């Protein structure tokens, strides 16, 4: 498992000219117990507006995908595993969160089927439990982008001219600059944040 992970990460790092964009997000309106499911929903909705982030680079051709099967990065004793949550664009938050919990448990127990680990079009990772303020994750090749959520904590922000405490976290988007322009990646990240803040 470790060897396969190393080969996959090395290829991604070698082949993808990756750039990371970072912005803060106010998670006041997000149920943090359903953070990953909520992020999947926000990403799937935003990817429909920014199709170049839901794509693959095959040779010299950019292939735009019309499905929204999003990977979730899960740390296990054997290493990082990325099970896939299917049809994130058309399913309810309850359904998505149910899949997140089932797949994460299966990943940690090593009981996932092979088809539950392949075919993702975009990946979401959340490393906040490990106290990471923000991350610059490696793109899950052959995808062209990955979104990461850092540690969410009460931090001071300014609202209506007053300093108040709110659950703030950093959202980062790492993307393949051959396929995605920086401005488009930033617009996508802001679209995700807008959806998270309006939940």
Keywords:
31% helix, 199 residues, single chain, 30% strand, two-stranded antiparallel sheet, alpha+beta, 4 helices, Chloramphenicol Acetyltransferase
Structure description:
With 199 residues, the chain is an alpha+beta fold. It has one domain: Chloramphenicol Acetyltransferase (2-Layer Sandwich). It has four helices and eleven strands; from the N terminus they run αβαββββββαββββα. The strands form three sheets. Strands 1, 4, 7, 8, 9, 10 and 11 form a seven-stranded mixed β-sheet that branches. Helix 2 packs across helix 3 and helix 2 (35-47) packs across helix 4. The chain is globular and about 50 Å long. The termini are far apart.
From the alpha-carbon coordinates, what is the Rg to the nearest angstrom? 16 Å
Please name the CATH topology.
Answer: Chloramphenicol Acetyltransferase
Tally the helices: what do you get? Answer: 4
Give me the CATH architecture, please: 2-Layer Sandwich
Distance between the termini: 38 Å
**How many extended strands?**
11
State the fourth-level CATH superfamily: Chloramphenicol acetyltransferase-like domain
Helix content: 25-40%
SSE succession: HEHEEEEEEHEEEEH
Derived from helix and strand composition plus strand pairing, the structural class reads alpha+beta
General shape: globular
- Profile the largest sheet: 7 strands, mixed
Percent in strands:
25-35%
Whole-number tally of structural domains: 1
């Amino acid at each position: 498992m470790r060897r396969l992970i190393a080969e996959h990460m090395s290829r991604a790092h070698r082949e993808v000219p990756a750039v990371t964009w970072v912005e803060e997000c106010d998670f006041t309106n997000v149920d943090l117990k359903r953070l990953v499911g909520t992020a999947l929903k926000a990403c799937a909705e935003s990817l429909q507006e920014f199709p170049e982030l839901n794509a693959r680079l095959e040779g010299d051709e950019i292939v735009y995908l019309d499905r929204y099967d999003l990977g979730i990065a899960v740390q296990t004793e054997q290493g990082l595993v990325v099970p896939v949550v299917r049809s994130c664009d058309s399913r309810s938050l309850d359904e998505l969160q149910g899949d997140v919990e089932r797949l994460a448990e299966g990943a940690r127990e090593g009981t996932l089927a092979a088809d539950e680990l392949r075919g993702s079009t975009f990946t979401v990772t959340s490393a906040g439990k490990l106290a990471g303020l923000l991350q610059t994750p490696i793109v899950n090749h052959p995808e062209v982008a990955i979104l990461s959520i850092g540690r969410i904590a009460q931090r001071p922000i300014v609202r209506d001219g007053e300093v108040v405490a709110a659950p703030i976290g950093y959202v980062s988007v790492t993307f393949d600059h051959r396929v995605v322009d920086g401005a488009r990646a930033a617009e996508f990240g802001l679209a995700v944040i807008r959806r998270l803040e309006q939940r």
